[in-house]
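Explain the record.
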Amino acid sequence: MSLDIHTAVLTALVIICLALVISLWQGIASIIKSRKLPFFRMRRERALRGWRLLFYAFIFLLLGLFFYFPAEPMIYRYFPPTVTSTQTPTITLTPTISLTPTISLTPTITLTPAVSNTPTITTTPHVPLAVEMQFQSTITPNPQAVFSKLVFTDGLDAMYRPLKPGVVFQNPVSHMYAVFSYDGMVVGSQWTALWYRNGELVHYETIPWNGGSGGLGYTDWAPDPSEWTPNNYEVQIFIGQIWKQSGQFTIEGEPPTPAPSSTPTSSATPTKTPIPTRTPWPSATPSTTSLPRPTHTPFLSPMPTLKPTPYPTLTRTPTPLPTSTKLPSLTPLPTLTRTPTAGKPPTSTSTPPPPGP
């Protein structure tokens, strides 16, 4: 029995969960029983066994988280998925011999095919010219890159895995995903996803590839729920102009009606007042000849011209200067007399007062 990587990871996850539950239950039971034992050594051994089982349960918990989240993408990195080609049976024509008698009795062999093949017209998928004109990448894609079959779903988990895969979906539908695994991609090469509704292109995305060389990817479309009309839908994947994979799904049931949009109330239309047209300024004409400057015209009326009145002529009569008089002669200063020598001072004579009555 051959298992794929996804099934192997799920199987390991289930086994780890069972081991986790058993270790947790045995550990708790061993710790509880150790408290009832009367002997110290037995009680300690039973308690150590219980804590050891709880430690194993913690290790199983870490392993379970590893297998649930990063294990599968990590395995795809080292073991990329490969596309398994299915052989289409070919119809072989089995000739039958029919004997037709003729006049000369010469039997002829007529080949009659047991199955009549009716050829059907199949168009090779191609990128429309309007989409091709939006290509940005100049890196040559790898023609050996492979894509798995598209899986359609209306929801993904954190690891890009479809939650409810299928090919028939019932309205209302809001968001659709086409999930695939890939290998051999070149970072920066142009890739395109086309969404068709009954042969009519309704959505597309074309960008340079920004993922890894192998792993899981998806393309999605999330229009208004009213646009998911019941019909057949097809998604086509291209690398550059090379078609790689296609997938189809069906939408059934009537879509929800679009929410009515609020209609603004009409207000009175203001009458337009004609705006006076501007008179264009005369264009300046360059002139090489200098024009005479205009004469300055005063704002006030011209003053009457006044004739100057001649001043009277003044005649100056010379006045004779006074005759100079002689200055008075200088009087000589008196000669200084010598100070008399000091002698005896004069004696004062006292006058007796007059007798009284």
Remarks:
- Residues 281-306, 324-328, 339-350 have pLDDT under 50 and may be disordered.
